[in-house]
Amino acid sequence: MSTDKHIDRICIIITLAALLVTVLFMNGEKLGIERIVDEDAEKYSDLDQFTANDQNGEWDTEGATVITLNGDSATVSGNGAYANKGSVVITNAGKYVLSGTLTDGTISVDAYISSKVWLLLDGVDITSSNNAAIRVEEADKVFITLAEGSENFLTSGETFSDAAIADGTNGAIFAHDDLTINGTGTLTIVSGYKHGIDANDDLIITGGTINITAPLDGLHANDSLRIMNANLTIDAGDDGLMVSKEGGYLHIESGTLNIKATGDAIHTAGDITIDDGSITLTAGDDGIHSDTNVLINGGTVLISECYEGIEAVTIDIAGGDVTIYPSDDGLNANGGSGDMFGMMGGFGPGRMEQMTETVTAEPTTTAEEDDSTWVRISGGSLTIINETGRDADGIDTNGDLIITGGTIRVSLPGGGTNNAIDYGSESGGKATISGGTLAASGGAQMAENFDASSEQPVIMYNLTETVEGGTEVLVLDADGNEILSYTPTQSFNSIFLSCPEMKVGETYTVVIGETEEELTLDSDAVTLGSAGMGSMGGGFFRGGGRGRGMNWGTATVTADGTATDGTAEPGDMPQGRPGGMMPPDGQMPAFDGTIAPEANMPTGEGRMGGPMESGFAHHQAAEETEETVVVSTAKSLSEFSSETWILLGTSFLVLLAAILLALKFKRY
User: Fold this and answer.
1) Is 283 helix (H, G, I), strand (E, B) or coil?
2) How far is CA 345 from CA 311, 342, 535, 544, in A?
3) 516 CB burial (10 A radius; 0-12, 13-18, 19+)
4) DSSP string spanning 482-528?
5) d(Cα 429, Cα 435) in Å, to the nearest integer?
6) How far is CA 619 from the centre of its chain?
7) Which of 92, 268, 412, 567 has the CB geometry, 3.0–4.6 Å to 442, for a possible disulfide?
8) pLDDT of the residue at 525
């Protein structure tokens, strides 16, 4: 009876208690409860590029399990690991110190899905004839630390076991989960099968000196590859650094990288960001390739040998010192890497002989979903020198070229269809400059000047004769002061010149060797000499098709058929054939204004060579097989953060108080 009498009060108290708990859960941080996140947990892996644990290469080894490798066996002192037939299996979270030699075995981490495992390599030499030398079967995250002063060696055989292959094991180090390598010691990896290091999730390297030789990729990650403070030397039979997942990315914070690759030195399906570091690349194909965006904020990047230097849908150079020696384009913003007849992406010399594996993956389509493409230079220094190019471009974009700062130097051989600058005018793209210093030389036949909307004057100077490389080019102001100088290394008959000191309405003198030309800038885009033919489409043939005139002997024929010197007749060849449109019977226009008697397709080294890659999908994507995703609905108690425990405890106490209060009323 008494309980019934007070049942309304009991219900009110319990309801208020429930509301209080709800408010606490919703406003814990506002009430001063600190939110603590396990930044190394896989679900938080993108909150910070490098966590405190990633960067800690001097963790305390007190209480760690000691594993001593003894040729064909091992001894374990401590908990969490056991020796098994010449291999070692680690089953628990914790810290492990390894040393010694294992002649034919594997260090395997097979722990709980929430486990963090630390491995300190302190002078190990591990060989595995048919598997990875170190493999991560399961864990939340594994940290491999290279002990100070230690030298460590990992070697894998040329053929892996059927079980290893079925499990997707593709490197001397293989991880199903997140993997970090740090420390100050040395690690030498010789992989006989596929990659040097292969990680299915994130691969993070924050220290150590690491030397890798591999028949395919040096470093191969699925989700992301992040590098800082490391010294990497890679000799790869395919790509040096590879991130294969659509949306997967590469972030280089700092460090020293020396990469030699038969394919691309760096290749990602997603974005590439370089903030700092010293990077030297030698590639049989692209120096740096992204299916989306490349952003360089700083550091020194030297691409000493490559087919194309940097290729992506969008390329941004905001800082740093970038030097490229390509045999084709220096920069190539291709704006849709899946277009077979667009830029034939990344299929240049060195790539053909790598196409030995069966390709089963679908082409990446991210780049095709957005037609925006550009090269944007806002700072830093960019130097492009092409010594052998035929039908090559220094800077090539299917969309816009935007220059707002920086120092840009481009030198390609003149006298042919080598463009210092080529942009997508046929598709509405513009080349504009509003800051920075530009001196870019090449051929005049396809040259097209910057857009008149530029905020800083630019001079395109086309010459009647080819100038030898090594000839100094100067721009002098009205008082004879030098405001710009450049000495192209290659011959040229066209050059672009621009610097912040140049102003519309002022008079300048361009000096090229013994030749001087005085001019008054009457606009922001001035052409000296006869204008080029203009580009010919961003499809199979390069560039635009909206040139400011075509060379016709000594006359410049404009769109209405008239010439600047009055020699041409109306109806003669108009300003540059519309983008990619062919003359009758597939003939190409001759550069004297006539139609060539036979089809004379451009024969530049593999115009079919450059960018076919994205159209057919990079062959390494074949390694991304269909993935089965298992979502666990159970949550380990160890994954609960401290504030969760506080709120749960508070809820329990409030509910307990409510129950006790209810019992008290019941007695009455």
Assistant:
1) strand
2) 8, 8, 19, 18
3) exposed
4) EEEEE--SS-EEEEEEE-TT--TT-EEEEEETTEEEEEE--SSEEEE
5) 19
6) 17
7) 412
8) 78
The tens digit of pLDDT for each residue in 270-329 reads 999 999 999 999 999 999 999 999 999 999 999 999 999 999 999 999 999 999 999 999
Distance of CA 624 to the CA centre of its chain: 19
**pLDDT recorded at residue 618:** 36
End-to-end CA distance of the chain: 8
User: What are the φ and ψ backbone dihedral angles of 108, each rounded to 5 degrees?
Assistant: -115, 130
Instruction: Yes or no: say if 212 and 187 are a contact pair by the CB < 8 Å rule.
Output: no
Secondary structure tally for the chain: helices H, strands E: 6, 47
| Residue 228: other Cβ atoms inside 10 A | 21
Residue that has been written with the tokens 């504030």 in this structure: 643
8 Å CB contact between 460 and 519: no
Whether the Cβ atoms of residue 272 and residue 311 lie closer than 8 Å to each other = no
DSSP H or E run through 120: strand 116-128
Q: Could you read off the pLDDT of 486-512 as tens digits, one per residue?
A: 999 999 999 999 999 999 999 999 999
Residue 346 has pLDDT above 80, yes or no: no
Contact 399, 384 (CB under 8 A): no
If one compares 617 and 382, the residue with the highest pLDDT of the two is: 382
- CB distance 179 to 206 below 8 Å: no
Spatial distance between the Cα atoms of 485 and 194, rounded to a whole number of angstroms: 48
How do strand 74-77 and strand 321-326 relate by DSSP bridges? unpaired
Helix (H, G, I), strand (E, B) or coil at 138: strand
Dihedral, 388, 313, 303, 412 alpha carbons, nearest 10: 30
Q: Which two tokens stand for residue 295?
A: 């952003």
Per DSSP, the three-state class of 95 is strand
> Amino acid identity, residue 562?
T
DSSP 422: E
Residue 385 contacts residue 647 (beta carbons within 8 Å):
no
Q: Which residues of 400-411 are buried (b: 16+ CB within 10 A; e: fewer)?
A: bbbbbbbbbbbb
CA distance 172 to 212: 10
367 beta partners = none
For residue 168 the two structure tokens come to 């997707």
For residue 195, give Cα distances in angstroms to 155, 170, 242, 497.
11, 6, 10, 45
More confident residue, 41 or 414: 414
Instruction: Report the C-alpha gap between 363 and 595 in whole angstroms.
Output: 39
pLDDT in tens, 73-107: 999 999 999 999 899 999 999 999 999 999 999 99
Question: Given phi > 0 = left and psi -120 to 50 = alpha, else beta, which region is 441?
Answer: beta
Strands (E) in 354-436, as ranges, are 374-385, 393-397, 400-411, 419-422, 431-433
Only one residue has tokens 């300048």, namely: 508
For the chain, percent helix, then strand, then coil, each to nearest 5?
A: 15, 40, 50
Q: How far is residue 419 CA from its own chain's centroid?
A: 25
Q: What are the tens digits of pLDDT across the range 59-71? A: 999 999 999 999 9
Q: In the beta sheet, which residues pair with residue 335? A: none
